[in-house]
Amino acid sequence: MSKIISLVSGIIFGIGLVISEMINPEKVLGFLDLFGNWDPSLAFVMIGALIVSSPMFHLIKRKEKPLFAENFNYSNNKEINNKLIIGSVLFGAGWGLGGLCPGPAISSIALLNINSISFVVAMFFGFYLVKFFKLSS
Predict the structure, then answer these.
(1) Alpha helices in 1-137 (DSSP H)
(2) What is the per-residue pLDDT across 11-59, written as a single tens digit (0 to 9) for each?
């Protein structure tokens, strides 16, 4: 049952990304261009998401367990270390240069855009590299 809930949640998330145009790299880059032709529309998407998710997060985390799982699975780690900093910089650079982050990139594959497909291939290659470097260190 939890796999069906995950699938439905992912589909709803993907539809939201398409409707908000977060799968459009030009739209995202326009949002990130603060000193040029800034497009603030994605800020409204983010504010809307926070208005819905923040109260729900606080209500749900008070429950003993989730509806469709045995336990909650979120990190309590508050440590800022080199891995977090390097990962954040790489994520931000990828978002700023490519105009996509992982969720929208995967959703945008449906458009068969060669840039989106290249981004996703490079992203999975990066996942592999991280595993490779973890094993060798």
Answers:
(1) 2-19, 25-32, 41-60, 82-98, 102-108, 114-136
(2) 898 888 888 888 888 888 888 888 988 999 989 988 998 999 999 888 8
The structure tokens listed for 110 are: 């449906």
pTM metric for this prediction: 0.68
Separation of alpha carbons 81 and 62, rounded Å? 29
Contact 23, 17 (CB under 8 A): yes
Three-state SS for 78-103 is CCCCHHHHHHHHHHHHHHHHHCCCHH
The contacts of residue 22 (CB under 8 Å, 6+ apart) are 28, 42, 45, 103, 104
The b-or-e profile of 61-78 (16+ CB within 10 A means b, else e) is: eeeeeeeeeeeeeeeeee
Reading the block at residue 10, the tokens are 């992912």
